[in-house]
């Protein structure tokens, strides 16, 4: 049975990708340190679902533990590595920079080294739309310059792309960077706006809309993200330097104001809105150009914000009513 290594398997995207791989008949070895950046109970519940499948092997550990990673790479013959583990969050990076250096830089370098030594056929890794930073060109294209990150989190993701290119160039390691655009959906991250807004609206607490509600985000539903990642698994770059990057976005950005309107409709409650100026580390608009993704995978994300938020709210109500 083919084995695939998924880091961050207890995280939002990692959980869904792992579940898809298990459904498709893969043996998944999942690594996660289950840190307390957000509710660990939610992470453990995700793991509980994955562990029901006998083809899932879970390892609790950190990317910084190079000895553990070497052991896993030697024990299993991974045909592919999907590296989704990272310290997430733009605003948290402003207050806790060393956490990002350890996980996102040292941890990623450890993954690259293990992939190099074991001649892994394909490494896919999570990057982020945040690398576009102060870029003014809309929509964001993978060919745009990305030397102006406006948060430490974004800087670490840009550094990941540079490190990946170097390993592709020096060692012919096939790498594919995945620039995710504001992923949302069931089993999502409580620190993300769609989740925290839902909590606040349900509890009749105020929500804070930065840039006076005029921030625009290319919200991308989790099922579309998983399908894109799955289709990219067998498609490493065939260029002389086997390195490529794809945007994974919905290509239909909406304002936070409209986003909240849709949430209010689904929750059948009115939000208490507090309007605030821009926050450090934020960008006004994200908008993905996915031409390269569509060309390579023959896939275009299709779930609208209205459909996606309806699915999320259904899950939210069911999940929290069962706790």
UniProtKB/TrEMBL annotation:
Q: Provide this UniProt record's keywords sorted from A to Z.
A: NAD
Top-level taxon of the source organism: Bacteria
This chain belongs to which protein, by name?
NAD-dependent epimerase/dehydratase family protein
Q: Which PANTHER family match?
A: EPIMERASE-RELATED
Presence of keyword Metal-binding: no
InterPro entries, alphabetized: Epimerase_deHydtase (IPR001509), NAD(P)-bd_dom_sf (IPR036291)
- Outline the extent of the NAD-dependent epimerase/dehydratase domain: 4-249
């Amino acid at each position: 049975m083919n084995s695939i290594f998924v880091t961050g398997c207890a995280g939002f995207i990692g959980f869904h990708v792992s579940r898809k791989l298990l459904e498709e008949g893969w043996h998944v070895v999942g690594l996660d340190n289950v840190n307390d950046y957000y509710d660990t109970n939610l992470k453990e519940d995700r793991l509980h679902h994955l562990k029901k499948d006998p083809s899932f092997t879970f390892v609790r550990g950190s990317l910084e533990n190079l000895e553990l990673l070497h052991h896993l790479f030697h024990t299993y013959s991974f045909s592919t590595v999907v590296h989704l583990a990272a310290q997430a969050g733009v605003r948290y990076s402003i207050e806790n920079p060393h956490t990002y250096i350890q996980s996102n830089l040292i941890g990623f370098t450890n993954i690259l080294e293990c992939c190099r030594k074991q001649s892994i056929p394909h490494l896919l890794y999570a990057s982020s739309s945040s690398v576009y930073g102060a870029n003014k060109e809309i929509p964001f294209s993978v060919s745009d310059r990305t030397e102006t990150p406006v948060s430490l989190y974004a800087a670490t993701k840009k550094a990941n792309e540079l490190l990946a290119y170097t390993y592709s160039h020096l060692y012919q390691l096939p790498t594919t960077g995945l620039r995710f655009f504001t992923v949302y959906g069931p089993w999502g991250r409580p620190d993300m706006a769609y989740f925290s807004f839902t909590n606040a609206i349900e509890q009749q607490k105020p929500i804070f809309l930065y840039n006076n509600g005029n921030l625009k985000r290319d919200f991308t539903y989790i099922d579309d993200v998983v399908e894109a990642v799955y289709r990219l698994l067998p498609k490493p770059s065939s260029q002389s330097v086997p390195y490529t990057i794809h945007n994974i976005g919905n290509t239909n950005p909406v304002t936070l104001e409209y986003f909240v309107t849709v949430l209010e409709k689904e929750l059948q409650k009115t939000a208490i809105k507090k309007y605030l100026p821009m926050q450090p580390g934020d960008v006004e608009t994200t908008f993905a150009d996915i031409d390269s993704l569509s060309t390579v995978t023959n896939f275009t994300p299709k779930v609208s914000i209205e459909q996606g938020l309806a699915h999320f709210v259904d899950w939210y109500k069911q999940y929290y009513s069962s706790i």
